[in-house]
Amino acid sequence: MRVTGTGHASMRIDTAAGSILCDPWVNPAYFASWFPFPDNSLLDWEALGDVDYLYVSHLHRDHFDAAHLKRFVSKDATVLLPAFPTSEMEDELRELGFTKFLKAPNEQVVELDGGLKIMIQALTSPTDGPIGDSSLWVEYDGVRLLNQNDARPADLSVFAELGHVHAHMLQFSGAIWYPMVYELPQAAKTAFGKQKRDRQFDRTWRYIDDLKADHVFPIAGPPCFLDDELWQFNDIHGDEGNIFPDQSVFLSEYAKVGGTNGVVLLPGSVAEITTSGASTTHPVPVEEFFADKVAHLEEMRERKRPVIEAEKASWRHPEVDVLKEMQRRIEPLLEESIYLAKGVGGPVRFDLVSYDGETVESIVVDFPGKQVRPYADEKVRYRFRTERALIEHLLHIGEVDWVNSLFLSCRFSAARIGQYNEFVYAFFKCLSTERLQYAEGWYDEHERSSDAEDITLGDWVVQRRCPHLKADLTRFGIVEGDQLTCQLHGWKFDLASGRCLTSVGHKVRAHRADATPTTA
């Protein structure tokens, strides 16, 4: 099996029975904030896109690059489609010209022509990507590969049960806006960022240990930030709280925990994988490339500057009445929402900075009141501040997912009182009836379901499944004193009260091992 690195989470997998192109991303994403690093725009995409199969893991724009898919990927390719709860991915790919689809049953091995086997695991929580994320397992002639990209399954047992894996591709770096955009003292940002960076690596080590593959390939991150306004987010400033460590940092940190089987793929790197080993060739020496990281970024910044400026020029739509358009689009969804509206539990404020950089219009999405209205000087627990032009653009194009656009762009600042509230972001990625109804149904189902199985962790008996996203706490749970941490997403719980310390809701059932449990 031959794997060609094509940048970020993208790769081309070649076997004698067919080729698969995964997650090709080249064009800037999220309001021209994210660019692939190392740069992959100079690869021979005409040749790379001439494949038998296309796999897109999910709809995040650093995995689903519509312009690139339309121009460079063969429309004769069969799309390996995850079993997502909505038809959005298939609909978008059909609009781009793809006509052949293999709808893979979830977690079932499918044999393709020539003995090539694949299995796709689809994750379908409202918090998994834009209503879904997935991983791809591939086997040919006894060689097995898992492309986990940035999916976060509760465990990898479904893949391990299919036989020993020879190549494991997975995310290790950040792909979020926290804590950088929060209006906090720099010392607090650094501390929170360091915690998140450490949790990212801890989660990665756990996945690696679960699968025990022969070779580990760090992929799906980090992006680079080439706009001058966002340049500080690149991990080149000696900031221990930066959540975007690169592949060379991964190798260094992996070595600290005994990892010796890490393999970096630069764009154009080729790994030949067999059941007995792997050999990799690179377009340039890996260590040399990352030693010159700052120079590479500065060269990219100048080369991509016209692209960024052209994007910025397209955002303003002064003809859009933001308040009225938000009312038209969001208020019907507020009326439909039960679980998400209750979960948010209060008004969310948007401060929109006008073209002059000074005038601010404040708009409130009032979840209890089921309305969008001007801010009335009330207390809010969540506040976002961004350029009015960005909201104008989202409304102009009818964007249904403000997480997969505004929030991942990091082109905003945020403030909150109290804990993180996942329902805020879940709602703003569900700005369509189809998405909202799915999310409401998912939360309804999980609200009503019971988790009767208990396990013992240290001095405590706790429910086996994490209340957040049902991770198996026998694998991801760590108890320190009276506090439980689920390492899959870093969520913490006070065991004495059951209260979630990370977000509202999600109470855990627990009692001391030497005590009689009480019932509510």
TrEMBL record:
InterPro entries: RibonucZ/Hydroxyglut_hydro (IPR036866), Rieske_2Fe-2S (IPR017941), Rieske_2Fe-2S_sf (IPR036922), SCP2_Rv3818 (IPR057330). This is Rieske 2Fe-2S domain-containing protein. The keyword Iron-sulfur applies. Residues 461-501 form the Rieske domain. Keywords: 2Fe-2S, Iron, Iron-sulfur, Metal-binding. It comes from the Bacteria. Pfam families: Rieske (PF00355), SCP2_Rv3818 (PF25451). The lineage of its organism: Bacteria, Bacillati, Actinomycetota, Actinomycetes, Micromonosporales. It comes from Micromonospora reichwaldensis. Transmembrane segments: none annotated. PANTHER family: N-ACYL-PHOSPHATIDYLETHANOLAMINE-HYDROLYZING PHOSPHOLIPASE D (PTHR15032:SF4). The keyword Transmembrane does not apply.
